[in-house]
Specification:
The complex is a heterodimer. Chain A has two domains: 2-174, Rossmann fold (3-Layer(aba) Sandwich); 192-319, Rossmann fold, CATH 3.40.50.920. Chain A has helices at 2-15, 39-43, 55-66, 83-93, 96-99, 129-133, 146-158, 169-174, 208-221, 239-249, 264-275, 300-303, 307-319, and strands at 19-23, 48-50, 71-75, 109-114, 139-141, 163-168, 192-195, 200-204, 226-230, 233-235, 252-259, 285-289. Chain A contains 13 helices and twelve strands. In chain A, the strands form two sheets. In chain A, strands 2-1-3-4-6-5-10 form a seven-stranded mixed beta sheet, sandwiched between helices. A five-stranded mixed beta sheet of chain A has the order 7-9-8-11-12, sandwiched between helices. The model of chain A has no long low-confidence stretch (mean pLDDT 97). By secondary structure, chain B is of the alpha/beta class. Chain B has helices at residues 32-57, 71-80, 94-100, 104-111, 135-150, 168-179, 199-202, 211-214, 227-242, 272-279, 283-293, 299-322, 330-333, 341-352; strands spanning 10-12, 86-88, 156-161, 184-190, 193-194, 197-198, 219-223, 248-253. In chain B, the strands form two sheets. In chain B, strands 1-7-8-4-3-2 form a six-stranded parallel beta sheet, sandwiched between helices. Chain B has a two-stranded antiparallel ribbon with strand order 5-6. Chain B is globular. The model of chain B has no long low-confidence stretch (mean pLDDT 96). Classes of the chains: A alpha/beta, B alpha/beta. Chains A and B meet through helix 3, helix 4 and helix 5 of A and helix 5, helix 6 and helix 14 of B.
């Protein structure tokens, strides 16, 4: 997936000279995960800039650059280091368009690794998308495959408003897939159905699509037909696709790596309760990270929802 | 022992508090008409300020941050900038905004609780008022980065208060600006007080200008009540930045003669005697005295100017008070370039439940 992300950067920089890549170590080093590999050599140090080691700087300068004709694609090295940038994201980036009645805007993409599962040190395994989804005026996107990363990143860069682009670290190298470098964007603000089914709807995003798809395969062996939906854009949520699926299956299991409390799963459950309650044949189930601090890596696979937890949750909805 | 680094901070003053020249007259001041124009703008800013406070006191304007005492800094900076430069203001820079073409009506509209006041008809590339402290310094640095990347001979200027220089964002901005030699000027308005906290409690640094030293950029202090010195120092800094010579930090020493905002009562934390002393140094006197000595000013001219300013302010206030509130669904209009589907439903609800339209007469009802 990391190569797909680098390809998308390259395509868009080639075709839109207002696109500028900024971040810590994105230049000569090509990013700590290699998401910007080769870009500085190709496009120069003005368009691929190493920033000082300061996240508020990255977000704040992105506001200024984007308000004055550039389209910054900024990398925050890990989601656990995003917080100093939140002031700028929440107070300015998300609302400059609104505050100025459309006179100014912030076409910015902030990319950041998302989630754990790669034996990283403390603070390198967070999935705190809920904090971002709560903020009006920004989009939150999380790809689940190389092709999706390529197409959604292009769409995010072309979007006239700020997009938070969360890249599941487990997928960076784990998943390989041929991606056509054709500059074709995929639509934002919609879910993708990864697998059709009729007995239960499994909604997830990012790296959890791996366990969820495995669970669906396991359930199939038991004669249970699971539909798997990749949420892809976490804010705003494509309710229509979710509700349509639940209307068909009558059962909903939400799977996310992030902690449960006030997670995006709660919003999905609320949407279905508000608009699809009578389609439900069983209570909604959530399979999530625990409401604990993300543990250091010896326990991280006990934290990340497992295939067994997902399968059990589905069995509970079927038992009802 | 060897010395690894040394620094000094210059202090610049051109007009003393009595309006006498203590340094060579800057070129722009050779034209008395230009000085009169700046003095008129300072007078108008002060008239607007008094009126805005009055409107707030009578329930016709929201919380407002007065600029009393800051007129020389604000007009000096406004006059030093070029129209194509970009201003990143804080929330007190009435004079600079006015000079750059933000209308009095727009200012009242914003402080009257309506985002339309940020949709400046004049300087459309200037950032809007900025309340989260010090955040604007990074926007100015970002805009300057855009000018550098696009090779445009433009500069950004960010205001910041004395308290704001304690924020991380300020250090980040001057650090970035220095490291990338950005065309940006940081204007610290040191008015002595960050709400109730005096500068001495904010930092052990002898000057705020010397914070520039750690960023590897020049820092200079200027008498912020001295119109001539402010304009000259800021002009020089902007021209250096425009030529590719890099950024600068300018600390303008002035005094907040008013409360922090209309929601504040400064008598709780500072002595009246201090404020009285500060009035002797306020910025209007010395320009007026200078102009008198040059034979370019008279009581009659002063009277005519005051009347003209009052008229301008009254006209703006009358228009402002006639202005009806935006429709409830305006809060959805500019959230995104295109409204996402799920928000259409909420917009419809906002329309359905909208409070009745009205002007500022039903304020706070």
């Amino acid at each position: 997936m990391i190569e797909a992300i680098a390809l998308a950067h390259g395509w868009e920089m080639q075709h839109d000279e207002s696109v500028v890549v900024i971040g810590q170590d994105v230049g000569a080093n090509g990013g700590v995960f290699r998401a910007t590999a080769g870009l500085q050599a190709r496009f120069g140090a003005d368009r691929v800039q190493d920033t000082p080691l300061a996240e508020a700087t990255i977000a704040g300068m992105s506001v200024g650059m984007s308000a004055h004709g550039l389209k910054p694609v900024a990398e925050i090295q890990f989601m656990g280091f995003l917080y100093p940038a939140l002031d700028q994201i929440v107070n300015h980036m998300s609302r400059l368009r609104n505050r100025t009645r459309g006179r100014m805007s912030c076409p910015v993409v902030i990319r950041t690794p998302h989630g754990g599962g790669i034996h990283a040190p403390e603070h390198h395994s967070e999935s705190t998308e809920t904090m971002l989804c709560h903020v009006p005026g920004i989009r939150v996107v999380c790809p689940s495959s190389p092709a999706r990363a390529y197409g959604l990143l292009l769409a995010a860069i072309r979007d006239p408003d700020p997009v938070m682009f969360l890249e599941p670290v487990r997928l960076y190298r784990a998943v390989r897939q041929e991606v056509a470098d054709d500059g074709r964007a995929l639509p934002l603000d919609r879910c993708y159905i990864l697998r059709e089914g009729s007995d239960v709807t499994l909604v997830t995003w990012g790296a959890m699509t791996l366990e969820t798809m495995s669970a669906a395969a396991e359930l199939e062996a038991e004669g249970v037909s699971a539909e798997v939906i990749d949420l892809a854009t976490l804010s705003p949520i494509d309710s229509a696709t979710l509700l349509e699926s639940v209307a068909k299956t009558g059962r909903l299991v939400i799977v996310h790596e992030a902690a449960r409390n006030v997670g995006v799963g709660a919003e999905i459950a609320a949407i279905v309760a508000e608009h699809g309650l009578y389609d439900l044949q069983a209570p909604v189930q959530r399979v999530t990270g625990y409401d604990t601090v993300v543990p250091l890596f010896r326990l991280e696979h006990d934290y990340i929802p497992s295939v067994r937890r997902i399968v059990d949750a589905v069995r509970r909805t079927l038992a009802g | 022992m060897t010395i690894a680094a040394e620094f000094k901070i210059d202090y610049r003053q051109t007009l003393d508090p009595a309006g006498r020249l203590v340094a060579p007259l800057p070129d722009f001041a050779r034209d008395a008409a230009e000085v009169v124009k700046m003095y008129a703008a300072m007078t108008c800013a002060r008239a607007f300020d008094a009126k805005a406070v009055n409107l707030q006191r009578t329930g016709q304007l929201g919380t407002y941050a007065p600029c009393l005492g800051h007129e020389a800094t604000h007009i000096g900076i406004g006059a030093a900038m070029r129209p194509e430069d970009v201003l990143a203001p804080v929330y007190r820079e009435v004079g600079t905004q006015m000079w750059r073409g933000v209308t009095l009506l727009e200012m009242l509209t914003y402080w009257g609780g309506d985002e339309r006041g940020n949709d400046f008809a004049g300087p459309r590339h200037d950032f809007p008022w900025c309340i989260p402290i010090a955040t604007q310094t990074l926007h100015a640095a970002g805009a300057a980065m855009a000018f550098k990347v696009r090779r445009e001979p433009r500069c950004a200027l960010a205001y910041i208060g004395d308290g704001g220089t304690s924020e991380g964002a300020f250090y980040e901005a001057i650090n970035l600006a220095g490291a990338r030699a950005l065309p940006v000027v940081f204007a610290i308005v040191n008015n002595g007080w960050a709400i109730s906290v005096p500068v001495a409690a904010q930092t052990a640094a002898a000057t705020l200008a010397q914070k520039a030293v750690a960023a590897g950029i020049p820092g200079v202090q200027v008498d912020g009540n001295d119109l001539f010195a402010v304009r000259e120092v800021v002009s020089q800094a902007l021209e250096t930045a425009r030529r590719g010579g890099g950024p600068c930090v300018i600390e303008a020493l002035t005094y907040r003669l008013s409360d922090h905002t209309t929601a504040d009562d400064a008598r709780r934390y500072r002595a009246n005697a201090e404020v009285e002393r500060a009035w002797a140094h306020e910025p209007m006197i010395r320009v007026r005295e200078y102009l008198r000595r040059e034979g370019a000013w008279s009581d009659a001219k002063e009277q005519a100017l005051l009347e003209d300013c009052a008229r301008q302010v009254d006209d703006a206030v009358a228009q402002y008070l006639r202005c009806t509130k935006p429709p409830a669904d305006a809060m959805f209009d500019h959230l995104f370039a295109q409204l996402p589907a799920h928000l259409r439903e909420q917009r419809d609800a906002a329309r359905r439940y909208a409070s009745p339209p009205g002007g500022h007469s039903n304020w706070q009802k």
